[in-house]
Write a structure and sequence with these properties.
2 domains; about 375 residues; Aspartate Aminotransferase, domain 2; about 40% helix; alpha/beta
Length: about 375
């Protein structure tokens, strides 16, 4: 039986060449020529004022929490339907995640519920662009400006996607993106902090450099570098940056290849949706998505369990996504909810995330769709 894995990392063919070039340059730690190329590409592609490569998106979010000045008891509003790193970055500083329900259409935070979650301790809003589909950023930014809090975009899944023509990662004061091997553009691990508010640019460099003004020293702005602030070692190795550069050069062709597979899935599940067996993803007209993932929503939790069992038994590695943070042990310990999270609980119990990687064939997609339909019928 030919198995279809959930993910198969795609390589462009130039990764090893660039890694060899980095080795020959005898610079393997962070901030070599490939790091500079990657950061320049992010600044040009997204339009952010500053991009800083990090060892992970988790690291970029931790930097954002430091830049936001999160202190014990400060509150940060975010969806519960997200990966744990979104919350942990702020919990590490003593912050309290405040979980808000999602929209059942986009699976993103419901901006209409944010104001009810605000308190005098609120310091930041953290919208998460699920599946590379942009949140309604205009009202989110307007709420933040009215109440004097930061917007920190979790754009881990958002590279290459746009909302109303603007790249995701460009709306917030700060944003974080990911280059984990499951992402469209990847380096095995890795991430980047995107700085749109210039007030945070210099301190972001210092925090990334273990709390030193090392980058200012290399630019000749100081005659030696010293410890000036809190920080940690957030930079990736030059080997990771070299791998990433090969991916960035092909970012648009990667997106187009994934969009073709996404469209195959969308067509393959058309009849099942018409029959009322499931729902396909809904992409708002305001969004240009990046085909980061394809998911379906079946009608109830028992059906999901049955479908996942059938898919995996047939060699199609499908998964659920996510266990809501507010219902986890960590979420109950460190965070709180604002209002009911009815849609979050419902969606989390019914969602199936299907295999999605460059190299999949139309027959693979049809096979997955046939198993789903046969199991539900």
């Amino acid at each position: 039986m030919n198995k279809i894995p959930f993910n198969r990392p795609y390589t462009t063919g130039r990764e090893i060449e660039y890694i060899r070039e980095a080795v020959n340059c005898s610079h393997l730690s962070s901030d070599g020529q490939f790091s500079r190329r990657c950061e320049a590409w992010l600044q040009q592609t997204i339009g952010c004022g500053r991009a800083l490569l990090t060892h992970s998106c988790t690291g970029a979010l931790e930097m954002a929490a430091l830049l936001a000045g999160i202190e014990p008891g400060d509150e940060v509003i975010m969806p519960s339907f997200t990966f744990v790193s979104t919350a942990n970055a702020f919990v590490l500083r003593g912050g309290v995640p405040v979980f808000v329900d999602i929209s059942p259409e986009t699976l993103n935070i419901d901006h209409r519920r944010i104001e009810a979650a605000l308190t005098r301790r609120t310091r930041a809003l953290v919208p998460v662009h699920y599946a590379g589909v942009g949140c309604e950023m205009e009202p989110i930014v307007a709420i933040a400006r009215e109440h004097g809090v930061l917007v920190i975009e979790d754009a881990a899944q958002g590279l290459g996607a746009r909302h109303r023509g603007i790249p995701l990662g460009r709306f917030g004061d700060l944003a974080a993106t990911s280059f984990h091997e499951t992402k469209n553009v990847m380096a095995g691990e890795g991430g980047a902090l995107l700085v749109n508010n210039p007030l945070h640019a210099e301190r972001a460099e210092i925090i990334r450099e273990k709390g030193t003004d090392r980058r200012r020293f290399f630019r000749g702005e100081v005659d030696k570098y010293t410890w000036v602030d809190v920080g940690s070692s957030y930079g990736p190795s030059e080997l990771m940056a070299a791998f990433l550069w090969a991916q960035m050069q092909e970012a648009e062709s990667i997106r187009q290849a994934r969009l073709e597979i996404w469209d195959w899935y969308y067509d393959a599940f058309s009849d099942a949706e018409t029959r009322g067996w499931l729902a396909r993803p809904r992409i708002p007209e305001s969004c240009e998505h990046n085909a980061h993932m394809f998911h379906v929503l079946v009608n109830d939790a028992p059906t999901r369990a049955k479908v996942l069992t059938a898919l995996n038994a047939a060699g199609v590695n499908a998964v659920f996504h996510y266990v809501p943070l507010h219902s986890s042990a960590g979420g109950r310990r460190f965070g709180r909810t604002s209002g009911e999270l009815r849609h979050t609980d419902d969606i989390a119990s019914r969602l199936i995330r299907l295999p999605m990687w460059i190299g999949m064939q139309r027959a693979d997609v049809d096979r997955a769709a046939t198993i789903v339909a046969r199991t539900i019928a």
